[in-house]
Amino acid sequence: MPETGEDADYAERAAAKSEVTKDAWEATIEDMFEMEEELEEQGWDVMAVAAGHTAPESPRAEPAGRFGLTYTIPDNFADEFREAFREDGFERYEVYRGEQEGTAFQVTALYDEETSTAILLAGAYELRHANPLVATAMKAGHMYSHVRLLDGTHLGSFRHEGYELFFPDADRRMNEVTEEMEKAMGLVDGEADPETVRQMSSQEPEPNVNARLGIDADPSPPEVEAGRAAAEARESEDDEGDVEDENA
To answer: Any idea what DSSP says for residue 125?
Structure first.
């Protein structure tokens, strides 16, 4: 039965959103590989991986009150991560972040100065599931990144002395949430958004609900290969440009 009216409009919007998020994820992975090349040229040993699933998790969902962004990486990266990871290292970090269609796309760069090792984690998650974590990080004054495998094996955690790079709009988000909660309690006029109320009541989504659609823990999903190919193509163009400049 052909789609008509609102159903057709919704399908078109959903398809357009899916294409936008797919392109944003490929661009994120491309940026990660370019960063990897630049760091290697500077003498760093680099481990770079794109997570199949990234979850913003609050103490309610995590064991022993743990919170932070949890990255599920492909099994075939486990040994490389274990070799690069050092529990007391990686105090310096940078976050390269953007947003598209309600999804955050980011590369977290972690640096261990003592061993000249860098770990790059690319991930994406839906912002609507992040409010409990944002509130927890603001209260604690710091953040964590956790890395695990698909079967739940924990590979390592990183503590970050601050949350602002991960959630640059944290104050605004919490103010908006406060307004929604006040509406829900009848303290101010207006209709509360049910999803916001559910999030602020710390009702976590079902497992994997906040996984970005179309991204799984495949060792080499199409987005990763596309990002790597784009990065290599750009490097090749830069090399050709250098040769032309030398011959000019």
So the answer is: E
